[in-house]
Design brief:
The complex is a heterotrimer of chains A (about 240), B (about 325) and C (about 290).
Chain A (H helix, E strand, L loop, with lengths): L4 E10 L2 E11 L4 E6 L5 H9 L6 E6 L2 E2 L5 H6 L2 E4 L11 H8 L5 H13 L1 H5 L10 H13 L5 E5 L7 H14 L4 E6 L2 H7 L2 E6 L2 E7 H6 L1 H8 L3
Parallel strand pairs in A: 3-8, 3-9, 6-7, 7-8
Antiparallel strand pairs in A: 1-2, 1-4, 4-5, 9-10
Chain B lengths: L1 H8 L3 H24 L10 H18 L3 H26 L4 H21 L1 H4 L5 E2 L9 H24 L1 H11 L1 H6 L4 H27 L1 E2 L6 H14 L5 H20 L9 H15 L3 H16 L10 H5 L9
Antiparallel strand pairs in B: 1-2
Chain C lengths: L1 H31 L6 H19 L2 H24 L6 H22 L5 E2 L9 E4 L2 E4 H23 L1 H11 L1 H6 L4 H27 L1 E2 L3 H16 L4 H21 L4 H15 L10
Helix pairs in contact in C: 1-5, 1-8, 1-9, 1-10, 2-3, 2-4, 2-8, 2-9, 3-8, 5-6, 6-8, 9-10, 9-11, 10-11
Classes of the chains: A alpha/beta (about 240), B mainly alpha (about 325), C mainly alpha (about 290).
Protein name (chain C): Branched-chain amino acid ABC transporter permease
Keywords (chain C): Amino-acid transport, Cell membrane, Membrane, Transmembrane, Transmembrane helix, Transport
Membrane topology (chain C): Multi-pass membrane protein
Chain lengths: ~240, ~325, ~290
């Protein structure tokens, strides 16, 4: 099967710190790939480097066979990659509706259809359409961030720890919605919460100290308590 | 050496005057370098200290008569007022982003300019006034030597200052403000201290300046004075002190020559444009200025021969000029 | 009583002119965190350009439009050649924009004249209305109306248009805007040009108001504009408007009752704001 996103030996420095020390991973279309790892393992930096927000100094990133590691963030986004950052990056003073409006790159039927679909998945956003995003609850902000990335006809969504700081019931809801999106788009999900992510993930990569240390199908990780204990501190 | 012998060789009074002016502006530019080059603070109102020093001397000579004692007192008063002024402006704005200090100094110097224009009973407004100076200083050669000696003393004094523990903290602030703060230094106090040292030194140069003219008017508070300091420091090279002296020489020489050239074509009356453009290019392309760039080249050359050790320790500062961290 | 009304009109008119200068400063600062010390130079170019074009064309409308075009063109060049290389380095930005100020004001002397120029009020707007014993000078009212219209237009654009929403989103989170596929540099250039154009409009409107223009006027007004953005809060349009009116009014009343203190009054206002709320009346962060 053809890979959608192919990252090879990606290395990233932040100031003098060598954060990513060679990350290699593939994302297959139609799947949910989960990137696991402890705090500080380099998961967020991996997503930021793919997006060009924290450009990699070495290695290559291929998108549908085309090299994108030299492109600017906005060009990478226009190729069809949506980004849901860890802190949700709300435009706190804009309403839900206004945020959706600037998120749309086109206003064609297809985009409107996608907006309808995601608003049905997250009806809260419809309810609070005219509320400033800064005033939404934590879970609603996360929905907003996902909807903002989803509304364009993106082929891949990079989602950074959507479960962070949310109540378990909300996390479950979010995971279900991400699974629903799978039919429409590919997802690269960063998570620490193994129990939630394992229910929807197809494949996994395990990160530690800026490197990929394990990879395989989610089933393999379910069966391998040792890896989970070693890198996530859970059985 | 040449500079000491010079007055005995040349008869040209105007040449001697020009050199005297250069020494005085070198002091002014060095005071600015303490802010910009060593602490990374941008002031757009440095003329206010220059002007305070200038008017202190002018007003005192005018009211109390031309005696050495009152002259020294006047210079001292100028320094104290400048210290106070820089303390107030510094405390108001130095804990905020760097833009605030630049704006506030600009506004305060504007206020002092208006004050000097309006307080006619003391300043005679725009027209200014002439005054007598003590007998001893009337001699141009004496004035030349005084200015030369003061420039050398200020250079040595400031050089010492930047090598004191306080001076080293200031340079650390310039290089990386957050890191210095996280090391437990109360940055605002150090910045205010730097602005006070700079203010006092600038006040001294203002006092000397009006002594050579025996005249003072509101131009000492004008934006042009601040621009002088900026151009001299930037073109000479920030963070080197010597650069400030060289910058002062370049600007003053060029000013004289280009003004001469104005006889041939009026465009030379606008000599400041050339310097403005040069200044922009230097800020964009050689943030370290002439001396700074030469020094880092020299440093690289020295590095290539590792058996040489650097006893002065001065050159380490210049190297990092090219990648000045933003101070916000 | 009529004296008070006159001072009020005066103060509001000056406030509007300062607002036109400050709105560009604050927009550019909010979005790009660049404080443009050359902004006053664009204001002065607007004034000279306006006076010159009015002389050439005889049409005041053409003069205003021309001034805005000149301002935008200068803003475009400035952003592209001078500001762009130093994004992110505040010290260099501050220094380089002041250099631009210097060159812009000196160039005025080369292009036009080192001497002050006279500026006329267009016939349609000269004179005054008398209502009872109150004399309302037409041109000043005109300036107030234009200032309010610009304020409303800027608000409308920022609140209702997609480009305005993008600008506001950019102020809040630059990275995320880019991650949505928006080229923020283009937005920067656009905002810079609009800010420059508004400054030039302010200059062109000031010229007939004060009757005479000179090359240092840019710096003089820039100082007022800086006081305004500090009082109003950097990055806030409403704050700029409120502070500009405050500064205009306090200037006009003090100039009448205590002429020595008019600049000092505004400075005092700024110092008080800095002491109590360093982020300004409407500022979110310092």
């Amino acid at each position: 099967m053809m890979t959608l996103l192919q990252v090879k030996d990606m290395q990233t420095f932040i100031e003098q710190y060598h954060i990513l020390q060679g990350v290699t991973m593939d994302v297959t279309p139609g799947e949910i790939t989960v990137l696991f790892g402890r705090n500080g393992a380099g998961k967020t930096t991996t997503l930021r480097s793919i997006m060009g927000l924290q450009p990699a100094s070495k290695g290559s990133i291929h998108w549908k066979g085309e090299s994108i590691e030299r492109l600017a963030t906005y060009q990478i986004a226009r190729k069809g990659i949506g980004y849901v950052p860890e802190d949700q990056s709300m435009f706190y003073d804009l309403t839900v509706g206004e945020t959706m409006r600037i998120a749309m790159r086109r206003q064609d039927d297809r985009t409107m259809e996608r907006q309808e679909w995601i608003l049905n998945v997250f009806p809260d956003l419809r309810t609070f359409w005219n509320r400033k995003t800064g005033l939404l609850s934590g879970g609603q902000k996360q929905m907003m961030a996902i909807a903002r990335a989803y509304v364009n006809d993106n082929d891949l969504l990079l989602i950074d720890e959507p479960s962070k700081g949310l109540a378990p019931i909300m996390v479950e809801k979010l995971m279900q919605s991400i699974e629903m999106m799978k039919a429409k788009t590919t997802v690269l999900l960063v998570e620490q919460n193994f129990f939630m992510a394992q229910t929807i993930g197809d494949r996994y990569y395990m990160m530690d100290e800026g490197k990929i240390v394990h990879q395989g199908s989610m089933q393999e990780l379910r069966n391998n308590g040792e890896i989970r204990r070693k890198y996530l501190g859970i059985a | 050496m040449v500079l000491i012998g010079l007055p005995f060789v040349t008869d040209s009074r105007s040449f001697l005057m020009m050199l005297t002016q250069i020494f005085i502006f070198a002091v002014f530019a060095m005071s600015y370098d303490i802010l910009l080059g060593y602490t990374g603070i941008v002031s757009f109102g440095h003329c206010m200290f220059f002007g305070v020093g200038a008017y202190s001397v002018g007003v005192m000579m005018n009211e109390k008569g031309a005696a050495i004692g009152s002259l020294l007192l006047a210079i001292l008063i100028g320094m104290v007022l400048s210290a106070l002024l820089s303390y107030i402006v510094g405390m108001l704005s130095l804990r905020l982003k760097s833009h605030f200090y630049a704006m506030l100094t600009l506004a305060f110097s504007g206020l002092l300019l208006v004050l000097a224009e309006k307080w006619r009973s003391v300043t005679h407004g725009n027209d200014g006034f002439t005054f007598q100076v003590p007998e001893l200083i009337k001699d141009r050669t004496v004035l030349y030597f005084i200015a030369l000696v003061i420039m050398v003393l200020v250079y040595l004094g400031l050089r010492r200052f930047i090598h004191t523990p306080v001076g080293r903290v200031l340079q650390a602030v310039r290089e990386n403000e957050q890191r210095t703060e996280s090391l437990g230094f109360e940055i605002v106090h150090y910045k205010v201290l730097a602005s006070i040292v700079a203010g006092i030194t600038a006040s001294l140069s203002g006092s000397l300046y009006v002594l050579t003219l025996r005249f003072v008017n509101t131009t000492v508070f004008s934006m042009d004075m601040t621009l002088n300091a900026l151009l001299m420091t930037i073109i000479g090279g920030v963070g080197t002190l010597i650069g400030a002296i060289i910058g002062a020489s370049i600007i003053e020489f060029a000013h004289h020559w280009l003004t001469e050239l104005a006889k041939f074509h009026p465009i030379f009356e606008r000599w400041i444009i050339f310097f403005g453009l040069l200044y922009i290019l230097v800020v964009l392309l050689f943030p370290a200025g002439i001396v700074g760039t030469l020094r880092s080249k020299w440093h690289k050359y020295r590095k290539a021969r590792p058996q040489d050790t650097d006893p002065s320790g001065v050159s380490t500062e210049s190297e990092s000029q090219g990648k000045k961290v933003n101070v916000s | 009583m009529d004296g008070v009304i006159n001072l009020l009109v005066n103060g509001l008119a000056t406030g509007m002119l300062v607002f036109l200068l400050a709105v560009g400063l604050t927009l550019i600062f909010g979005l790009m965190s660049v404080l443009n010390f050359g902004h006053g130079g664009l204001f002065a170019w607007g004034a000279y350009g306006g006076v010159w074009l009015y002389g050439v064309t005889g049409s005041f409308v053409a003069a205003l439009i021309g001034a805005v075009v000149i301002g935008m063109a200068l803003g475009w060049m400035m952003e592209r050649w001078v500001i762009r290389p130093v994004y992110g380095n505040h010290v260099q930005q501050i220094l380089v924009t002041l250099g631009v100020m210097l060159v812009l004001s000196e160039m005025l002397k080369v292009v036009w004249s080192p001497n002050p120029l006279k500026a006329d009020v267009p016939p349609l707007l000269s004179g005054s209305w008398e209502i009872g014993s109150v004399i309302l000078i037409k041109y000043r009212l005109f300036v107030i109306v234009i200032g309010l219209l610009v304020f409303l237009a800027v608000q409308l654009v920022l609140k209702k248009t997609k480009i305005g929403l993008i600008v506001r989103a950019g102020v809040m989170n630059k990275e995320m805007v880019q991650a949505l596929g928006i080229h923020i540099r283009t937005i920067f250039t656009l905002v810079f040009m609009v800010g420059a154009g508004l400054a030039a409009l302010g200059g062109a409107l000031l010229a007939p108001y004060s009757g005479v223009i000179f090359s240092e006027m840019g710096m003089q007004f820039a100082i007022l504009a800086f006081i305004v953005v500090v009082i109003g809060g950097m990055g806030s349009i409403q704050g700029s408007m409120l502070a500009a009116i405050l500064v205009g009014l306090s200037g006009s009343f003090l100039a009448y009752y205590l002429p020595e203190l008019s600049l000092a009054g505004n400075m005092l206002l700024m110092v008080i704001v800095l002491l109590i709320k360093p982020s300004g009346l409407f500022g979110a962060k310092g």
